[in-house]
Structure formats: structure tokens, C-alpha cells
Amino acid sequence: MLFGRKFILRTDHKPLLAIFGKNKGIKVFSASRLQRWALLLTNYDFKIEFVSTNQMGMADTLSRLISEKSEVEDKVIALVSNSDENYSDEDCSDEDSLLVEESIKYVLNIMLDEVPVSAEQVKSETENDSELKMIKQFIKNGWPKVVNDPALSIWSNRRQELEVIDECIMCSGKIVIPKALRKSVLKVLHETHPGSAKMKGVAREYMYWPNIGRNIEDWVANCIRCQSAAKRPIKSELRPWPNTNRNWERVHIDFAGPCKDGKVYFIVIDAHSKWPEVFENMTTSAKDVIKCFEWLGTHYGYPETIVSDNGSPFPSNEFKVYCQNKGIRQVFSAPYHPQSNGQVERFVDYFKRMMTKNSNKKNWLSEVLLFYRASPHESLEGKSPSEVFLGRKLRLNLARLIPKKVTFQENKTPQQVKMKTWFDKHHGVKNRKIGKLVYFLNYRKDG
């Protein structure tokens, strides 16, 4: 057995020196057979050496005795020279080989699929990524005048945007994700199946790596749920509504359902910010719709204009009277033409597709709404609905990827200093001398 013994591994394939050499460390390879061999050899204490093919007589002879049985994968042919003269040669049984194979698959699943994606994990994997490790050295010590490697030239063209924070590489304020974690990060982005456009928008807020957009498109294209719930082409052209100048100037409303879960949802979309509100467990009665607008009114105020279709309960007298009392103008879309209320119809279509993709999750609605509100919107010049509606970005769980660059200090800001100076000057507390009588107010005394 080789386990526990130091030995020399000789090969006539020189690239194996770089792949399995101890000085290089173990990388995440694209080929599964390299992953298995790399993980398997980490259990052994060996030194790898290159030997010319002409001098590999023993191993070359064994290669002539290859079995007629075809193998799915290539096998590495190497000569093992034991440094211990008392070594007794034994081969592993088929059962042991199968056990090692299954163990390696288990370890790989843990390492590559279930890793917690955090700044610490990014820091660790950046150290193990040969390309990013070289980029870090260039950032710290200076870039070479000429970069001939195409893989490095991509980074060289953006050298002014690169910096190192807490041993993580940042590109224009976005964290650079090592190759080993990109699959896990794509899983987080695709957790609610939002589509490639929204995945790209959120990704640009937090992270960067070369060809990230193409990787996202490929990921969505290979998702069975996304393809099965893909949007069908529209049958006619859509004519946009007039632009609005402020939030809540015009809202579009509609019902979605009964859906697959048996519920009816009431959907409200602000035309200016694209901010959505969704109310579940609804009925199509004017009473329930009025309750929703009362909730909206207490949180955001009443809208100026409501756009809806002609379905019940919107044309009802009860809802008309309510709108008149609140100063709300009603506008109805063309009958049997849902495209004329396209603002809300597009979100209803998106909403139903998200329900199909995330029906196995308990709190899918809140997660989908959060991701939608935080995603840059193409009609908002790259801003998200939350930025336009609330004036700020929403914090997603992806924010934990970014290392803390600025630490809070106890130093007072100029405004705090100014407030303290004014208060100390006008607070009216007098300095008392020791021994002088003062009037004391006893709060415990009755009356």
C-alpha cells in the first residue's frame, strides 16, 4: 500500500507537474477526471517527477498489456517508485476503488455546491484561484507593460477599476467571484427564477467576473422550469401610456387568479416607479378592493389615477363612489384587449411565471417581490423600483458578499459638534458651589 508512505510519482506527461505538484495547490478543474485524481492524490505523500518517454520502459510495457475492454475515461499511466525499499506492492480492491469514487463525489458536492457564499469564502477561494492570485500581485506590485495572455488582458484593460480589499479583489466596487464559487453564486441569483435580465441587473450591483452575462444566460437557458414557463410572444404591438412625472400619479390594477394555489391576488403597479404591491387571499368584490386601497392610502397616500379593465368590481357603483370621495380618477382600458392595460398585465404575466417556478417554496411571494423591487428596470434607466419609489436601494442577502471597507468611528460629524455646542450654550444648567443650599424635587412624594 502507498498510503502513509512517501514515494516518487514519475510521469512522461509534463503538464501533470503543474496540475498535481504540491507547490501549486489543488484547483477546481473543469474536467471531472482531474478533480477526482487531484482529490485522490491529496491523501498521499509523494513527489512528482518528469521522465522522458524514452526512459519510461516499465510503464510503457504495461501500456501494451491494456485490456480489450473499452473505458469511458482516459487513465493516467504513471510509474510509481517507492522511496522505501521494504515496500510491499499491493493493489486496491474494486470495492475500495468504488468507495473512494463515491467519497470523492460526496466531497465535491460539499465543496462546490453547498458552500456558504460569503466574503470569507470569497477571500479563501481567491487565494486558491491561480488567475486571481496573479491579478492580486499585479494590483499590489504593478502591472507589466505588455500582457500577452488573453485571459489576463481582460483584467489588464480594467486595471484602473481594480483594488484589493481584505484580500478580496474588487472591480468598480463589485466583488470579483473566484471560479470555484461562481456556480454557487449563480444558484443564489437564480433562486426565484427571475429571468436572465433581472439576474444580470442584480449581479451588476454586487459582483463581477469575465463573461458573467453570458454565464447567466446559459444558466437560465438550461433551467427546465424557466423554459417551461417561458413567456409566449405577444400577438399585437403595445402602445405605451403617457409618461408620469411622480410616484403614485397613475397606478394600474388587476386581478390574477384563481391561480394554481386556488388563491386570487390583487395587483397594483405604480406607472412611474414600477413598484408592485400584491394582496393575496382576495375576492373580486368592491369591498375587498377598497380595503386594499385604504391600506395603500395609509402607507403611500391615494393615487391620482387608477387604470383598470372593465371586469367586476371596478365599474361598480360602490367603487366609483369611493374613488370620487378620495379624489381618484378612474380610467378603463379597452374591453377584450388586455394589452391596453399593459403595465399591470406584464407584471401579472411575470407574477404567474414566478408562481410556477417557485410553487415549492413557502414564502415565495415575499422573496419574489423583494427581488423584483431591488432589480434594475430597463424603463427606469437602470434604476430599481425601490430607488425611484423609496429613494434608496433595498438590501439583499447578496450584500454579505461585499467586505466592509469603512469602519464606523466614534468621531462626531461637524453637524453633531454644532448641535452639542448649541445645546451646551443654551441648556440653562447652572454651576453650583459645594455647601450651597438647593431645592430638591422628590418624585416619590405624593402630590
Strand content: 5-15%
Radius of gyration: 33 Å
Rounded average pLDDT: 76
**Main β-sheet, spatial strand arrangement:** 10-9-8-11-12
- Terminal CA distance: 93 Å
Q: Which percent bin holds the helix content?
A: 40-55%
The CATH topology of the largest domain comes to Nucleotidyltransferase, domain 5
Q: How many domains? A: 3
Number of strands: 12
Annotated CATH architecture of the largest domain:
2-Layer Sandwich
Could you give a short account of the major beta sheet? Answer: 5 strands, mixed
Shape: extended
- Can you identify the CATH superfamily of the largest domain? Ribonuclease H-like superfamily/Ribonuclease H
Poorly predicted sequence stretches spanning 5 or more consecutive residues: 24-32, 71-92, 104-115
Q: Look at the structure and give the CATH class of the largest domain.
A: Alpha Beta
What letter string, H or E per element, gives the SSE order? Answer: EHHEHEHHHHEEEHHEHHEEEHEHEHHHH
Oligomeric status: single chain
Structural class: alpha/beta
GO molecular function: nucleic acid binding; RNA-directed DNA polymerase activity
Pfam family, one: rve
InterPro entries: Integrase_cat-core, Integrase_H2C2, Retrovirus_Pol_polyprotein, RNaseH-like_sf, RNaseH_sf
GO biological process, one term: DNA integration
